Amino acid sequence: MRRTSLVLIAVALSACSVGPRPIRYGEDECAHCRMRIMDPRFGAEAVTAKGRQMPMDSVECLLDWVAESDEGMRSLWVTDYSSKQLIAAETAIYLESEHLPSPMGAGVSAYATRELAEQALRDYPGRLLDWTELKASGLSVK
Hints:
Elements: H1 2-15, E1 44-48, E2 53-56, H2 59-68, E3 73-79, E4 86-88, E5 93-96, E6 108-111, H3 114-123, E7 127-129, H4 131-136
Antiparallel strand pairs: 1-2, 1-3, 3-4, 5-6, 5-7
């Protein structure tokens, strides 16, 4: 009986962990710019310390929202341009290229691996950045 109770408690606690939720393209509104999120290659999401899931339409909006928010962040997510799946923002490699327009016009796309980013760089000249470099770049939608 005690073992069953411990298992049930563990299951309940794991259900409380909040990660990103799938972005509903064509329905969700960007938490930063309020535009409807349309392009599944560029979405992003912040999960606040309180578990609020804040969808964004681009990496640029995510950067601005995080910089302006007074809420603590639990996790940050960006969409891998290749697979269209949410990946951790801190581990992604970013391509900044004027040849690959993003929803807010800054030309930033995210990739799960350096190899994928380098493949995109061959098609869309620009520069590759990691999360720290991207945050320090001063990129903004303003």
